Amino acid sequence: MPLHRRFLALLALLALACLLAAPAARAQAQGKFIVMASTTSTEQSGLFGHLLPLFKQATGIDVRVVAVGTGQALDMARRGDADVVFVHDQPAEEKFVAEGFGLQRRAVMYNDFVLIGPAADPAATRGKDIAGALRKLGAAGAAFISRGDKSGTHAAELRYWRAAGIDVAAAKPAGYRECGCGMGPALNIAASSNAYLLADRGTWLNFKNRGALAVLVEGDRRLFNQYGVMVVNPARHAHVKLDLAQAFADWVVSPAGQAAIAGYKIGGESVFFPNAGS
């Protein structure tokens, strides 16, 4: 075969090899991501906008976040629709692991809940006692917006009502309304109706449409809000991207991940406080 024909044949073989390799390369590139089921507070506080680019820079892994209430996030993972879970309802998280859906629960960070309400505080709730504040709200029939979405915030709110001696499942106070929505929409409803509600501090700090709302109750030790991360068990769902999900779980509790969390501030105020290993 003449030299130029051999050269053309070689070019054709190289072109064919590239064509055959392209789908595999695309598949490999597209596979470098995980799905994370997380809470609306981590998303709407702005934390993930700060944290996830740093994780991708360190590992090359994209994280696709589905931000819902903690209960919904755990249900997503139970169905195998997520690779990793990052939520804030420790009893529910421990149950998730005990049932075999998660490999291990690891503490990551904390912040706190606050009672938000009209700055004028017509129900006189202001102070540090969350149970006492809710008793006053119940007695006054004051407007209160509950997320009502089985989120970590909703679970905490129900605990505080029980501590106040009020079973909202049996008999809701006169002004009690459930929105079945995330933290941001719940805050918007409260702002437009001048109502009280329980919020995580991170989302409150990032919330711009405050209207006449203000923080009224804070500092009660019961308002502590712990977050945890769990990799979904591939024994339950074989398609879980174990190595990539574990890379995220390991990074977020590493010195680099913990420093990234500590570095996120709004208006100079820390939003989350790293406490891996606690």
From TrEMBL:
PROSITE patterns cross-referenced by the UniProt entry: PROKAR_LIPOPROTEIN, TAT
Signal as UniProt keyword: yes
InterPro entries: ABC-Tungstate_binding, PBP_domain, TAT_signal
Keyword Signal: yes
Signal peptide from the UniProt entry: 1-27
Keywords: Signal
PBP domain ranges (all copies): 25-255
SUPFAM superfamilies with a match to the protein in the record: Periplasmic binding protein-like II (SSF53850)
Record's protein name: Substrate-binding domain-containing protein
Species assigned in the record: Aquincola agrisoli
Source lineage: Bacteria, Pseudomonadati, Pseudomonadota, Betaproteobacteria, Burkholderiales
